[in-house]
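Re: [ENG-882] Designed sequences occasionally contain unexpected residues at chain ends

Forwarding the minimal case from QA. Structure tokens:
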């Protein structure tokens, strides 16, 4: 009724893609601003194979990153040299049309299927982790394994996918960038807001305009994190501070505190 509607009755272009795209835009910003690096050639582990994972993979491929994994609750597909666009199309067909398990793609895509594992249980080298499946999917053992194998960034596409033990392990590794879901996956709800704005004005913006607004939105979120973190804080601390400050100031203005 309010958001995520079909384009035939008031939906917005890019609403299905927005969470995955936004997570990748955030990763791109962090790599460029913190490490002076692009996503080109980076080995990226994506978990899940639903909406968020599919479109995160799509945008990573567009930026020439190597998508090494996607997964479902039964197992994981591993693409040693990175997923191709053709592989992604077959995954989308499998999940969105056939409603099948990734296991059915074994031998049909360039990746190899491993039953009963997740991207976080494998001894694989990843530069970036984009958990896009479910809550608490990265635990303490997973975090240690990821860091041992050279991880430099975690960008949450799901809500609370990193449990508290794993968060602390990653937090203690000062040179690893960690952006929590409250910031990195905000593109979805942000474009929902854009959808409601279009409805209120009886307008439909083009896909290009929505994408431009989404990128600007993620840039603004990144700037808020950076400013709130200060000179010595991390992006995670900046996200938490910026979120708290926004709520606290609103409560003050409403006279609640």
């Amino acid at each position: 009724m309010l958001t995520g509607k079909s384009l035939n009755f008031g939906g917005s272009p890019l609403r299905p893609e927005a969470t995955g795209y936004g997570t990748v835009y955030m990763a791109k910003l962090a790599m460029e601003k913190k490490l002076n690096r692009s996503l080109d050639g980076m080995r990226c582990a994506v978990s899940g194979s639903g909406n968020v994972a599919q479109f995160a993979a799509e945008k990573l491929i567009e930026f020439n990153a190597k998508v090494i994994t996607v997964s479902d609750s039964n197992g994981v597909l591993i693409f040693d040299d990175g997923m191709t666009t053709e592989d992604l199309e077959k995954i989308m067909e499998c999940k969105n049309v056939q409603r099948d398990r990734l296991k059915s793609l074994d031998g049909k895509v360039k990746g190899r299927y491993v039953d009963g594992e997740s991207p976080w249980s494998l001894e694989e080298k990843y530069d970036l982790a984009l958990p896009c499946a479910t809550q608490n999917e990265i635990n303490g053992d997973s975090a240690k394994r990821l860091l041992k194998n050279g991880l430099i960034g975690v960008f949450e596409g799901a809500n609370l996918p990193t449990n508290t033990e794993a968060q602390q392990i990653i937090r203690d590794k000062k040179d690893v960038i960690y952006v929590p879901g409250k910031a990195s996956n905000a593109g979805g709800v942000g474009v929902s807001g854009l959808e409601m704005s279009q409805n209120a004005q009886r307008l439909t913006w083009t896909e290009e305009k929505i994408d431009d607004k989404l990128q600007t939105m993620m840039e603004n979120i990144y700037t808020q994190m950076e400013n709130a973190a200060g000179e010595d804080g991390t992006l995670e601390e900046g996200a938490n501070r910026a979120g708290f400050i926004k709520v606290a100031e609103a409560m003050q203005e409403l006279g609640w505190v």
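QA comment: On inspection the terminal residues look reasonable. The first helix runs from residue 18 to 35. Proposing we downgrade this to a documentation issue.
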